[in-house]
Amino acid sequence: LQNEMIIARIGEPYLMEDTISPFNCRLTADYANQNGGLSYLHEETDAKNRQLIHDYYKDSFDKTLPNDTKIVFGGGTTMMIAACYYALHKKLNRAIDVKTNSKVCYVLHKKMTKIVPEINWKEANMYADLSVIVSPSNPLGVITDAQSLKEKYILYDVVYDKYIFTGQKHSVNESLYEEFAKNPGVFIACSFSKLGIAGVRFGFLLTRDEEIAKYAKEYVDIISVTYPTSNATVARLAYYKHFNKSSFDIYIYKKLEARKAFFLEHAPKHGIKLLNIGYIIPYIYTDKSVEWWIETFNVETRPGEDFDDTNEHSRFNIMISDKYWNEFMRRFRM
């Protein structure tokens, strides 16, 4: 590994050793209300996958979702946010104005939303139809109070609101769930990928608006070969086997916390300043550029422009596999 580039730009599927496979699958081409011949289901698979979301919120945050909550599945939060753009465009039957608190949303979403050409991207200080909020934000870890937002429609990406990132056994977005229960214009996107099964690409959208749910699923159907039932099944089996156990969360968090401590200990001797002291754990935002990291340590980081900042800065993701982290420690100690 001594001569290999270490990729710390994004996280890997991490800390999973067991092989997980969906069992009892059945071809659904001839079943009523099922989506396509390539979508594989056991008879009650979809219902079980939906129950997974309710169990996740109850296990993780002791929260019960409103009875009229609709759940739409897709390939990670990026797809679900794009599906929400599409759905709101269809619901309002006009061009929509969108703003976000994270420029990375623009980078990720513009390709995904080519199917929705009538999106006007607004600056963060401008009013829009839809405000997209990443909370905690990436990489600064900023929490946004849902009650402080003025837009009629609000979409929260809460993918980092998990114990393994925040070290908190409760949601850091308490006001969001209060708003969601009383305001059908609030939508929530999340993903199981960040729990430790990133390769599965399984996300979900929560909404209490029937039209938004219908059109969001239409978007997923248009851009996907199949509705992501098998992805949901893999995530469900993984969740019940591993991720709903507090010991697993604690193990992951402590591992990442130790990596963070190591980084903080050795950063000063390399002249590295951290720009997000209160960051969510695996993201370290530094005053060094991508080029500096490659030249100095042969490590690829993520450029600051992806976070509405200068490329003189970049983000280091410590959520990498053990073998590459150990090699990074060897280089960083020198």
Count all strands and give the number. 12
Encode the helix/strand succession as letters: EHEHEHEEEHHEHEHHHEHEEEH
Number of helices: 11
The strands making up the biggest β-sheet line up spatially as 2-8-7-6-5-3-4
Proportion of helical residues:
25-40%
Q: Strand share of the residues?
A: 5-15%
Structural class: alpha/beta
* Mean pLDDT over all positions: 84
What can be said about the biggest beta sheet? 7 strands, mixed
The low-pLDDT segments are 13-32, 34-40
- What is the terminal-to-terminal distance? 16 Å
Radius of gyration of CA atoms, rounded to a whole number: 20 Å
Shape: globular
What is this structure, in a nutshell?
With 334 residues, this protein is of the alpha/beta class. It has 11 helices and 12 strands. The strands form 3 sheets. A 7-stranded mixed β-sheet has the order 2-8-7-6-5-3-4, sandwiched between helices. It has a 3-stranded antiparallel β-sheet with strand order 9-12-11, with no helix packed on it.
Structure description:
By secondary structure, the protein is of the alpha/beta class. 39% of the residues lie in helices and 14% in strands. It has 11 helices and 12 strands. A 7-stranded mixed sheet has the order 2-8-7-6-5-3-4, sandwiched between helices. A 3-stranded antiparallel sheet has the order 9-12-11, with no helix packed on it. The chain has a two-stranded parallel ribbon with strand order 1-10. Helix 3 links the parallel strand 3 and strand 4. The chain is globular.
